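Can't attach files on this board, so I'm pasting raw text. These are the components:
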Amino acid sequence: MSNATVQERRSEVAASRLPDVNAEIFPYDVVQHLLDQTADISLFAVPEPGYAETASLLPSDPNDWFGLNGGFGITFRSRLHRFRSFIQPPTPECLAVAQAIGEVDGRLECRCLLGDANLQWNPSSNPDPVLLDPWVSQRFSVQEADFAFGGGEGFRGYGIGRTYPISVNGEPRLLASAVGNLVEGRGKFRGCEATFVMTGTITDLGFLGNVICRVVDPNGSFRRGREIPAPSSNVDSRDAFLLMRGVKKNPRVKTTYGPPPDATRVSLVTPSQMRSVDLRFAGREQGGPHTEMRVGPVLGPMEATVFFDLLAPPGTAERPVPFTTQELYTFQDGDGMTVATLTAGITEGISFKLEFPAAPGQPGVRFAGFGPITGGTGPLAGAQGILTVNSLIGISPHALSLLHVLHIVDPGVNFSRTLD
Amino acid sequence: MANQSASLDFATGAGPPLGEAVPVAHDPRLQRLVDQAAGFNLFAIPQRESGGAIPAPGGGAIGLQLSEALHRFDIDLGLAPVGTDVQASNRVGERVGQLDLRWLIIPQDFRALPDREPPPTLLDRSRSQRFTMQETAFAFGDGRSGFRSFGTGRTFPVALRGQPKLLVAAVGNLTKGFGKFQSHEGNFTLCGEITPDHGFLGHLIVRVQDPQGILRTQADLAPLQHELDPDPEFTYLLFAGQKGRGPDQVNRFSFGPNGQMRALNVSTELKHLRMGCAVSGPEGFLARDFQVGEVIGREIGAGRGSEPGADPSGSALRPFLFEGVARYSLNDSRDREVGALTTNVLEGRRFDMRLPEDPQDVAWRFGFFGPVVLGSGCFSGAQGMFYGASASIFRPPPGAHMITHFYAARLHDPHGRFRAARGRL
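---
Top answer:
Structure tokens for the assembled complex are below.
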């Protein structure tokens, strides 16, 4: 952006009256209810054995060896297992999560093309190719993601991601995270809007980790009010995945503007309350995939500062609006005493315009992203990992429906992870 | 490694598209000129009393400086017998020389030059770092023959069976020869690890152009003596790569969706390779003429210049940089694939040279290294590095591409799965 343009935008921001995001076009409770009309799918991806050896980055032209898997990108296929991750109520002695990885309920295929530091969201073209270097953090496009469940159900998506080489007790690991948008749905997903995030480990050119899909579901197609049994565990997740739902503690909690980070963006300071959440999914049952959400006990407050361009046109599938965040999570015991804190920030965030058929004119945003964990205290001191968010919010009123996952690389020392 | 030709990816638009079958152009005379070279397989073992870390003022190390013993190293990899894994014999023999080195860690964006001392940079065993081989001097036999060199490399922290190790690989260029090496040009590639007491333990492939045959003999060398096993957790593979004559051997450009050339697809036949050297009698240090034998596998790969638009020439001070991905499959005696390694060459360095009998052609010599990113078949789950030293004359497709690669891989092999008990020859 040229200096003149920056100056122009600065003037626009200064001249504009920052909107009152707390005002109520529709009542807060109504907007909160509408935001929560989503099908929330949490799955665990486990690499399909042997797939990496046969996969190509150029499936239509396997004799072009530029497409050798693992060179200028990674094509992976993972089995999607049912996944339950439930944070136990914090105690002064312990912060623990019960995890269970159950039966296979779907399949994820992704073709990821590595790009340079300037890689941008662009579903219609490939990035300038970059060679995989497992010792360097690299950006990539999820050029094609295909989620398949039983009975022809599923969807195709596009996204962007990044690798994160880390060292765990001297052992190198390559983490990877991505965020994406549903491009074309099949079966019940046809015509849906959805956002997905994933965070995990690249192992032998496969992806092992958590995948969260959030499908806007105003008609309740995916939610039947029927109980879905919890998965029985048969796979070790290797790491801890702390799944949390965040809303404002009550409608009186106000969002405020913070100091702008630069000439073109504003910051919104958003307090919320985080709870354990149990997301259940059945992908292969009669009537197609369905979901169930059970909200658990309060874990503590979370304060997020969100940075974005207030004057940008609403995000679309072709051109979402980027954002970044800084988050502080505080885990408290039943007496309100702090057990642990954790800081993280979204560095790759995308947002899309969200409309509510039941509340015409009510603005909203569907957004998702990922970024590194940057610090922790108590049992989370020294924690390494990734934060993913997959959320919906209203604008005026600023109601929240947050779904966060803290992927904590778990060397089994500071953090208690138990099988469910 | 589909490599050095990458400069032409950006310099020319010539060549047949993928799928167009054209005869492979061969020129035996050019192949002979390319192969007028001495190849040395050496194994470096730190001499504990000679030094180690270069200390940083505030603690830690900024590099290493020490003398090492250079030993004969014999690697023999042939066709795998039916029903067995790929296996190579690795035999480290008697000492044949000395390596004096001063290596310094450098910042990621530092432009290394022989006369440019880098800023002090701490060695960090938890992350991959670049380093400069500010001084690496080889002396062979009685010390009257050898060469000085300059080069750069990278460290690669890994954990093998839960044990952290700092792997290292580098490419160096001969800058000044003495004794029998005087007026020669050549390069070397090394791969091994930085030991906890700051020495280098590992393999060096040295390739020196030798049109006069001063450095080599056709006679058999004295048997290898005083066998050691200084690196028992690793097995080294060694093989040659040369152009075959089948239609699958044709080089082809790869074009992106926008129609721009993005890489050169290159295949070679992988062949049995024997290299040896020894200090023997009045002739001193000599290499046995390297011998390229039967086909044992196939390489397919795509390479390109690392810096689009870079000057396609490569010099001692500014080598041409290349990178790429390749898959090396090795066969059994029934010509069935036993295992394959997919490797990413993260750093390749190419130097132009003129061959005395063909001065109008620019020939290339080059070195390269990078990690194994995927193993299949018997190599499933393999961890290691791939590296090599090579020379070629390249004319854009469908022109001749005469090439001989000295390819090597260092695989973590704690149980000796890929290690044959003895040499085959």
